[in-house]
Amino acid sequence: MLKIQNGKLTNKHYAFALPQGFSIATGGDALETSHFGFYSDDKRVQIFVVFETSNGTPEEEFEVLCEDCEFIKKSDYIKVKRGKKEAVGLYYNSSNDVEEYYEELYNFDGDEKENQLCIYISFFKEENDKTTLADVLARPEIKEFWNSVEYF
After folding, report:
1. Which end of the chain has fewer surrounding CB within 10 Å, N or C?
2. CB 88 within 8 A of CB 103
3. How many CB atoms lie within 10 A of CB 137?
C-alpha cells in the first residue's frame, strides 16, 4: 500500500514524486493492480512503476527480462544510490530498435507480496528524429522525477 506524504507516494521501503507534466494511465491494460504508468503528451515518453515478486537479484531479473522479451542490453549494470540504498540500473533497447529503455530495480525484504520495485522510462523513437533516450533523461522534469526517488 502507498501513502501520500510530503507530495510523494511512500511506503516503508521507498518514496517517489509524481512526474510533472505527465498524464497518469487510467484503465485498460495500462493500469493494473501491480503497476501504473505516466505518459508524456505525445505518448513517446513513458514512466512505469511496477511492483513485483522476485526470487533473484536485480542482475538475474534483468537477464531474464532481456532474454524473455528479446531486449538488447546497451550498458553494464549500474549501481545507483537513491536515498540510503543502492538500486541496480540498466539501459536496453527493443529488438527492433524502436524503443529505448532505462530501468532501475530495487529489492527489499519484508512480508509484502511484492518485494521488488521496478521503475523504467521508455522512449519511442520516430523516423528522422535525432532525439535519444539520453536527451529524454536530461529533461528537467525527468531529472526531477529520478531525483525524487528514495530507497530506504
Report:
1. N
2. no
3. 16
Q: Using alpha carbons, list the distances in angstroms from residue 50 to 21, 65, 89, 125.
A: 20, 14, 14, 23
**41-58 per-position pLDDT tens digit:** 999 999 999 988 888 899
The CB density around residue 29, as the number of other CB atoms within 10 Å, is 7
Adjacent-strand bridge partners of 81: 86
Taking only the tens place, the pLDDT of each residue in 84-117 is 999 999 999 999 999 999 999 999 876 667 889 9
Looking at residue 109, its pLDDT comes to: 79
* Predicted confidence (pLDDT) at residue 29 exceeds the cutoff of 70: no
C-alpha dihedral sign at 47, 49, 54, 56: positive
Cell of 21: 507534466
| Contact between 33 and 113 (Cβ < 8 Å) | no
| Domains present along the chain, CATH in parentheses | 31-128+145-151 (3.40.1000.10)
